[in-house]
Amino acid sequence: MNALDKIGLQGSLWMTVGGENLGGAGRVELLGAIAECGSITQAAKLVKMSYKAAWDAIDAMNNLAGEPLVERLTGGKGGGGTRLTQRGRQLVDNFRIIEREHARYLRQLGSQAEGIADDLLLIRRMAMKTTARNQFLGKVAELKQGAVNDEVTLELPGGQHIVAIVTQGSSASLGLVPGAEAFALIKASSIILVADSEGARFSARNQLAGTVTRVQTGAVNTEVVLDLPRGGTIAAIITNQSSTDLGIELGSSVTAMFKASSVILGVPA
């Protein structure tokens, strides 16, 4: 480093819910673009994000926020569109206020960094990342202890419940007690879709009925996203043949099922 070079301080601002990343400048920029364009497609192009990545980000934010930040519009002259809810607009406005204050704080702190030794270390927090497509934040509603495993019932903000089976050791180390915050992770490949479950019985403890809102077909598999009636979404990966056999299409009613043993629980750090 040149002796005349000044040490500058930089930092990123992001929001978390229960230890999970709700959003930073990139996601807030996406929300702002949706408010401006009224279209997910146009907003994604504006922030240089793929259409799928934009929807994945929106689904994650809606689920973690506990209420919709983005909602769809149907009908109208343009055939529908997308807009921010009041909560979504409030979040964008408040984030931008906090972001300005954060930048001002860094400028003030940076002005005091002159003269600090060249070997100053800037330590970054390590954020947890997961490949699980479905992430839900909730509170432990019930804990049933068994001889080896515990059954944990997690209540989501929308009122839905997810049941998980974990070992007693895991339950204790995570501090899973009624009222404690926890998040549930379920891989999309662990979700079973049923198009007509009336009169049928299944061993899967978790059954969430919803409406198909997105279908993305690949070379072998199809990603199906369901809107849940009380808020939130759930995604499943099934084969193209299964999608055809089930008659999966936009607007159809489908039930997403998954075993309690397929749920991974975590708690905020």
UniProtKB/TrEMBL annotation:
Keyword terms of this UniProt record: Molybdenum, Repeat, Transport
InterPro entries: LysR_HTH_N, Mo/tungstate-bd_C_term_dom, ModE, ModE-bd_N, Molybdate_resp_trans_reg, Mop_domain, Transp-assoc_OB_typ1, WH-like_DNA-bd_sf
Superkingdom as given in the UniProt entry: Bacteria
Limits of the Mop domain: 129-195, 201-267
Family note: Belongs to the ModE family.
Name under which the protein is recorded: TOBE domain-containing protein
Higher taxonomy: Bacteria, Pseudomonadati, Pseudomonadota, Betaproteobacteria, Burkholderiales
